[in-house]
Design a protein that fits this description.
By secondary structure, the chain is an alpha+beta fold. Helices cover 39% and strands 27% of the residues.
């Protein structure tokens, strides 16, 4: 009787754990929810183009987070239920926003030092140099790649991420140029940053790309703040941007001339931090 009771308890605990595990089916439901938000945004364009653009951009980033969770599930075998719930709730908030109902704003996380560290807030931009060549002709989904930061990232005058910091990412989607889909495209997402104490999870997407030759010229011009100012001017003014590609929402880099996207080693990418990063 006692053995049977223990067996029932073990089965009960295992069943509870299984019920809490994030599955591919859960991620599929997130895909459906994201598609619904996209449809609502398309309808919204007729009445409020600015809000529709905002929703479109936000859902593109959330779609990248779904890809990020899917990659982690396949690579690590598990994803915390809390992360799934958080993403599900943010999609619902976007859906409500798109259909015009009242929503409650989420608190903004600042950049003040916490517990001996710093919070790099959402929206912070950093420039990194690609160390792994990528092409829509040969890349594959979930392929890993690496880049290094070109300049110090400072908060209130304090260097939080020094130049040379390694960031890693994966290919979220790839479309080679062909007869049906003439333009090649790559979606890149960054999910890891290497700090002094070891690697940490990161969520960042590409917003702009600078060609390798121009970025080499920048490197020869100076160092530190000087390079940062030059890079900022180039990217901000559109000079030196990678010819023949267009960077869209969610980090998708698409060819504009009917060819494949080719990102050689040394390509400079501007990243946007999509989730608060705590640096200690």
């Amino acid at each position: 009787m006692k053995v049977a009771l223990i067996g029932m308890l073990v089965v009960g605990v295992a069943g509870s754990a299984m019920a809490q595990a994030v599955t591919e089916a859960d991620l599929g439901r997130l895909d459906v929810a994201a598609a619904e938000v996209t449809r609502h945004a398309a309808v919204l364009k007729a009445s409020d183009g600015a809000l529709a653009f905002e929703v479109d951009r936000a859902v593109a980033l959330l779609k990248q987070e779904i890809i990020y969770l899917r990659v982690r599930l396949r690579r690590e075998g598990t994803v915390p239920r809390t992360e799934y719930i958080d993403l599900r709730d943010r999609l619902e908030t976007l859906r409500v926003k798109a259909v015009g109902q009242k929503v409650t704003a989420h608190p903004v996380i600042g950049d003040d030092p916490v517990s001996g560290g710093w919070i790099v807030p959402v929206g912070t931009e950093m420039d990194v140099r690609l160390q792994t060549p990528l092409s829509s002709r040969t890349a594959r989904v979930e392929q890993r790649f690496e880049a290094t930061s070109g300049v110090d990232l400072k908060i209130k005058g304090v260097v939080v991420l020094p130049a040379g910091t390694v960031v890693r990412g994966f290919v979220g989607s790839v479309q080679p140029a062909g007869r049906v889909e003439r333009r090649g495209s790559l979606t890149l997402a960054f999910d890891e940053i290497v700090l002094e104490k070891g690697p940490m999870r990161l969520r960042a997407s590409v917003t702009q790309a600078l060609d390798g030759k121009t970025s080499e010229d920048v490197s020869r011009t100076g160092t530190g703040a000087a390079i940062g100012a030059i890079i900022g001017g180039l990217l901000g003014g559109g000079k030196g941007l990678l010819v023949g590609v267009l960077v869209g929402g969610g980090g998708t880099i698409a060819a504009t001339d009917g060819t494949d996207v080719d990102l050689p080693t040394g390509t400079l990418l501007r990243l946007r931090i999509d989730s608060p990063l705590e640096v200690r």
